[in-house]
């Protein structure tokens, strides 16, 4: 039997052929330092999840897994999105502590050492907070800040601002997250929801090591909607209050109209006031329907109970098979150099 796996490093990758070897090169020393804190026979596993890449990402992972006993990967059958890819990684992790991390080195692997220190000191979840996001675009920073402000005003439980998926979760927290079966994954919300003893450390967000960002505005907007709908019920409830308020106002207005008609007689009602009332109520109705639709769509998705992701292929592991296929010469060289598309 192989030694107990202390740390599972979970890395979702989507078209990241340039970044993978750079990542391993820099993560290895940091993870080694972290393992030294834990104990002499502590080991780590690097678990990559290929989120349906169309470049050579999967080939690179296959070779890395063959060459390194501590690297394994699961390849999803198509692009399911980072949240689903992370779920696939978390489901497969064997470690006593699990650390999701981006492959692009924007989450500096050196932070893992202080995460582990806090974990050994008793924290069950160690959040990493970005204190400097100057390497992210101005729009991204501005939209993220606005999003967290709104979300935290609405959310039923607080979601820490500026904490991404990069964090340490101990086994108990991981098992709790695994029990959450919802389809609309917003991992940052789920990780916060499970609770436990939380510690927070600060770090500076770095620039992307290689490659380009995989997020498009539409994807981010979808994630933001998932985030709000999966951690709040407030947007659904405000309509009962707003509706109540409008009903009271309408009733008061009706009473005033009746009194006015009795006192001064009937006159031709104004076109403008009717239009205003009709348009405002119509607009409010559509808006409330839209919000109900956002929630309802997700309810429909939950009811279908589809799996979060489909795995096409898995390989590698802490205990590599004795009959591992020999590495063809030239492979190592191929990996050592970042590949230009
Ligand atoms: N990623 C993924 N699936 C996707 C989009 C992104 O697995 O559909 C991975 C990506 O390979 C990277 C991490 O998620 O490891 C963060 O992505 P990226 O750096 O593009 O996001 P950003 O840092 O710009 O928010
Ligand atoms: Mg990035």
Can you give a write-up of this model?
It is a single chain. This protein is α/β, with parallel strands linked by helices and 341 residues long. Helices cover 50% and strands 16% of the residues. It is built from 11 helices and 8 strands. It has helices spanning 20-38, 57-67, 82-92, 111-120, 138-154, 171-179, 187-193, 217-231, 234-264, 271-304, 331-336; strands at residues 5-13, 43-50, 71-76, 97-100, 125-132, 163-170, 198-204, 311-316. An 8-stranded mixed beta sheet has the order 7-5-6-4-1-2-3-8, with helices on both faces. Strand 1, helix 1 (20-38) and strand 2 (43-50) form a beta-alpha-beta unit. The longest helix is centred in the C-terminal third of the chain and has 34 residues, at 271-304. It is elongated and about 95 Å long. The structure holds uridine-5'-diphosphate and magnesium ion.
Count of DSSP strands = 8
Main β-sheet, spatial strand arrangement: 7-5-6-4-1-2-3-8
Average predicted local confidence, pLDDT? 82
Shape: elongated
> Cα-atom Rg, whole angstroms?
26 Å
Helix content range of the residues, please? 40-55%
Cα-to-Cα separation, first versus last residue: 41 Å
Query: How does the helix and strand content classify structurally?
Result: alpha/beta
* Oligomeric description of these chains: single chain
Order of helices and strands: EHEHEHEHEHEHHEHHHEH
Could you tell me the strand content as a percent range? Answer: 15-25%
